Amino acid sequence: MELDTDILIIGAGMSGLGFAVQLVRQYGHRNFEIIERSNQVGGTWLANSYPGNLKTAETYDRRYKILVSAVGILSQPNPCDIPGVSSFQGRIFHTADWDHSFDWKNKEIVVVGNGCSATQVVPVISQGDGAVKKVTQFARQAQWVFERPNPKYSSLFKWTMKWVPFAMRSYRLMQNYYCEWDFQSFPTESGASIRKMYADYQGAYIRRMSPEKYHEFLVPNIEVGCRRRVMDTDFLECLHRNNVELVYKDPIEKIVENGVRTKSGRFVKADAIVLANGFQILKPLLSINLHGEEGVSVADHWDKVSDGAASAYFGTCLSGFPNFFIMMGPNTASGHGSVTYITECQIEFTLRVIKPILKALNAQRSILPVIRQKTDVVKVKPEAEQVDIDTIQERLKSLVWSSGCTSWALDPKTGRNTTMYPDFQFKYWLRSMFIPWRDFELSTSKPVAAALSLKTPGASSWLVASISVTITAYFAYQRLPLQR
Questions:
Q1: Which residues does 258 contact at the CB level (< 8 Å), separation at least 6?
Q2: Oxidoreductase: present as a keyword of the record (predicted)?
Q3: pTM of the model
Q4: Quick one: pLDDT at residue 403?
Q5: pLDDT given at position 373
Q6: Which pLDDT belongs to residue 280?
Q7: Helix or strand holding residue 112 (H, E)
Q8: Residue 122, pLDDT score
Q9: pLDDT at 484 (0 to 100)
């Protein structure tokens, strides 16, 4: 079978572009394609352009040797499950699909949600000359809102970072150390004192910055870190504004033609409803409709190995899915560090695993006799995958995410944590550096085996090659005097 491309990368966000860049930088390999459902690159930050629109693309067939899923985990919004949504006569859209044609000035807006997206949107649309007439935010659960670190860097600091050798790298290592230290707060028992310190400090910050009437709701009664922390972007302060109302005791019961009706019967007029109700974590991977060996789908595979919850070896590989790799896959997110760092580790890991495949593809195309590299199929062994999945889940049981709160990190059906990585990030990096090849099965596909068998060097091939080298060397030698 003739390939259209060696490597097909799904998604032109941070992971997809990062993989492509490193593929060229490390291996000089440019035979790849990136497919993107939007009309430009950007991934999560293209979709989440609050104050986008994702467009469907045409359907076509591509044949490839390696498939990389870089669709991410924050690209498919949760649907609106409030009754009556179809009857609403105004604008209704998710923060990940923001309607930039909508002018919110002097409009009445309802915001559904209380996570990172909602707490960023509300302060912006409620301030200045272009502010909304009224924004009513409906919140179901309180989040730990942390004071946002926002240091001002002096000109001397900037000069030092630019000109002093290793200064920027040292500063980065220091920041990384602080982030890694923070993981000590996540173990349920040993991290209790650190979480108590966080709760006392951030609780006081919440009370100091927000109106007293909201204190009973805004200070959560859950463990710090059990849900994703929200960095305060002037959200608490904006609750003092006359055009902002936070509703937490009277949830929306139904959407009507020109607003929403709450459980108590209160009517709230709305020109637009903004949904900040989160994402279908890891569902974008299922939307690819990918099938592995013997026609097994990703969903069927997860039913077999993890009771239907998302899972993967190193968050990257699925047994029975040869030459398939997932960026930002199950259990790769971090509650204390950067997901960019984890993605970079996954890229490095994947590049090391596919190196034999790339060598085999190059050997297949070479006109010279090739006798060495034949592996063009790599897949993780089922037993290795199962051990890795079980180990991750066992470690997660002793961390704060399992302390009893509801969280998007938990699979709603099984209760498994399908999102978070249960350890320091530098340990993930170490695993990406050293590939345990015993966990993988390497083989040669029939097309490559047939192609390479035709190029096995016999006596005549070596004779032709030797004569060619001799003639080339002779003429090169004859030209040397002329160049003097």
A1: 88, 89, 90, 269, 270
A2: yes
A3: 0.85
A4: 86
A5: 64
A6: 83
A7: strand 108-112
A8: 97
A9: 41
Burial readout 357-367 (b: 16 or more C-beta within 10 A, e: otherwise): bbbbbebbeee
DSSP codes, 34-67: EE-SSSSS-THHHH----------------EEEE
Residues 394 and 311: their CA atoms lie apart, in Å, by 13
**What are the residue ranges in the chain where pLDDT is below 70?**
1, 39-59, 284, 367-373, 451-469, 471-484
Q: What is the 3-state secondary structure (H, E, C) of the chain?
A: CCCCEEEEEECCCHHHHHHHHHHHHHHCCCCEEEECCCCCCCCHHHHCCCCCCCCCCCCCCCCEEEEEECCCCCCCECCCCCCCHHHCCCEEEEHHHCCCCCCCCCCEEEEECCCHHHHHHHHHHCCCCCCCCEEEEECCCCCCEECCCCCCCCHHHHHHHHHCCCHHHHHHHHHHHHHHHHHHHCECCCCHHHHHHHHHHHHHHHHHHCCHHHHHHHCCCCCCCCCCCEECCCHHHHCCCCCEEEECCCCEEEEECCEEEECCCCEEECCEEEECCCECCCHHHHCCCCECHHHCEHHHHHHHHHCCCCCCECCCECCCCCCEEECCCCCCECCCCCHHHHHHHHHHHHHHHHHHHHHHHHHHHCCCCCCCCCCCEEEECHHHHHHHHHHHHHHHCCEHHHCCCCCCCECCCCCCECCECCCCHHHHHHHHHCCCHHHEEEECCHHHHHHHHCCCCCHHHHHHHHHHHHHHHHHHHHHHHHHC
Tokens of 384: 């290795």
pLDDT the model gives residue 250? 97
Q: Are strands 145-146 and 252-256 parallel, antiparallel or unpaired?
A: unpaired
pLDDT at 346: 98
Domains of the chain as residue ranges with CATH: 5-76+281-447 (3.50.50.60), 85-275 (3.50.50.60)
